[in-house]
Amino acid sequence: MKRSYEELTKELKMKNIRLSHQRLKVLEYLTIHMDHPTVDQIYNGLHKEIPTLSKTTVYSTLSALADAGLVRIINIEDNEARYDIRVADHGHFKCESCGTIYDFQANIDSLTTVDLKRFDIKDKNLYFKGCCPTCLVGKNEASLSK
Amino acid sequence: MKRSYEELTKELKMKNIRLSHQRLKVLEYLTIHMDHPTVDQIYNGLHKEIPTLSKTTVYSTLSALADAGLVRIINIEDNEARYDIRVADHGHFKCESCGTIYDFQANIDSLTTVDLKRFDIKDKNLYFKGCCPTCLVGKNEASLSK
DNA sequence: TTATTATGTTGTAATGATTACAATATTGAT
DNA sequence: ATCAATATTGTAATCATTACAACATAATAA
Ligand SMILES: [Mn+2]
Ligand SMILES: [Mn+2]
Ligand SMILES: [Zn+2]
Ligand SMILES: [Zn+2]
Fold first, then answer.
1. pLDDT mean across residues, chain A
2. Which pLDDT score is estimated for B139?
3. Sign of the torsion formed by the C-alpha atoms of B139, B142, B144 and B146
4. How do residues A84-108 score in pLDDT, each as one tens digit?
5. Which domain holds residue A64?
6. Do A113 and B104 touch (CB under 8 A)?
7. Separation of CA A67 and C1' C29 in angstroms?
8. What CATH number has the domain bearing residue A104?
9. Is B55 found in the same domain as B105?
10. Which of A31, A76, A85, B19 is the most exposed place for a label (fewest CB within 10 A)?
């Protein structure tokens, strides 16, 4: 959900992150594009508005935001990180056919395991892979027409 | 657990994977080293025995074994994939201090979610990050001596 | 066993995401 | 407005992974 500059500014200040035009814009981009964008997508999306933007800045900004807990880094694919403004626990489903990454609710906290009794858990990640409903329809049609 | 060549050969034949010295050795390496090794570790470990081994072969072999479901690729870290001979569902805990990746039991199937009712789920992954008991001891001692 | 063909292996070069770094610009505080 | 601390930028370096072509090996049948 898109948030106002005032809200975003407040969030950055609360986390002691210095204010800058680039950081606000990256943060805003993530609130508008909740589809787990890549660095390239963020960079290209903002490049129109901010022609001087450097990709290095996008990387360093995302790194700072992740350290502060304002964004989450998703490493489902081996080749490219994705970024998520939703930091509350939820699972991710990646469709191997169309590449879309879906959110899903899951009670990850219910997975308490005796094996990790003495471990200090800081971060929990859950992701599934497979085929999404939209792509399943396409596959069924393809097999019918054979 | 280490398995005999006969067992490993049988597993490859069952999956219709052509037999080769390199493939058997990679598979054997994974049964001996269950600590989720990287490609580099596998390559260096086998290089002594097989001086002609190529890193490309390690990659292609692991890719073939993963396609056949004989090994699992773990993408916890953004920079380097790790490989696991344990294909049964289990979770991974990565200690951010020492880098060790621990296995833990977790009933991942209990996480059925209504959000994925119509999805075809092929693969489930669960991983946590934090600090392991061994490293926690070191941290406590460090804070005491301050 | 030998010949034939398909597939695997190897070394090298290319790819591409991420990081390092130094010069410059901006921020926040005085 | 000044100043010190920090952020941004552009470029080059890093490094895991992949592409590819020459060569080697495995499966199959004669
Ligand atoms: Mn998400
Ligand atoms: Mn494991
Ligand atoms: Zn899909
Ligand atoms: Zn540790």
1. 92
2. 74
3. negative
4. 999 999 999 999 999 999 999 998 8
5. 1-87
6. yes
7. 25
8. 3.30.1490.190
9. no
10. B19
C1’ D16 / CA A14, Å: 37
Query: Higher model confidence: residue B5 or residue A48?
Result: A48
CA distance A129 to chain B (A): 5
> Looking at the structure, do residues B41 and B83 belong to the same domain, yes or no?
yes
In whole angstroms, D8 C1' to A33 CA is: 24
Contact flag B81-A77 (C-beta cutoff 8 Å): no
Q: Is A139 on the interface with B (CB under 8 A)?
A: no
Closest by Cα among B120, B81, B117 to B101: B81
pLDDT tens for each residue of A37-57: 999 999 999 999 999 999 999
User: What number is the average pLDDT over the span A51-80?
Assistant: 96
Considering the domain architecture, whether residues B83 and B120 belong to the same structural domain is answered as no
- Pick the last residue of a domain from B87, B107, B130: B87
Q: Of B64, B87, B110, which residue constitutes the final position of a domain?
A: B87
Sheet holding A101-104, edge to edge: A101-104, A91-95, A120-131, B120-131, B91-95, B101-104
Q: Are A98 and A52 in contact (CB under 8 A)?
A: no
Residue B111 banded pLDDT, cuts 50, 70, 90: confident
| pLDDT confidence of residue A74 | 96
Residues B95 and A95: beta-carbon distance below 8 Å: no
Centre of ligand 2 to C-alpha B74, Å, is 8
Judge whether residue A1 has pLDDT over 80: no
Which of B120, B124, B140 should we substitute to test contact with A (largest number of A Cβ atoms within 10 Å)?
Answer: B120
pLDDT: which is higher, B143 or A126: A126
Which protein residues have any CB–strand D distance under 7 A?
A: A 17-18, 20-23, 50, 52-57, 60-61, 64, 78-79; B 18-21, 38-40, 55-56, 59, 63, 79-81
**Statement to judge: residues A7 and A74 lie in one domain:** yes
3 state SS of A130 = strand
pLDDT (0 to 100) of residue A146: 47
Task: Report CA(A144)–ligand 3 centroid distance (Å).
Answer: 19
Q: How far is B37 from chain A (nearest CA, A)?
A: 16
Which nucleotide is nearest, taking the CA of residue B9 and each C1'?
A: D26
Q: Percent helix, strand and coil across chain A, each rounded to 5?
A: 45, 20, 40
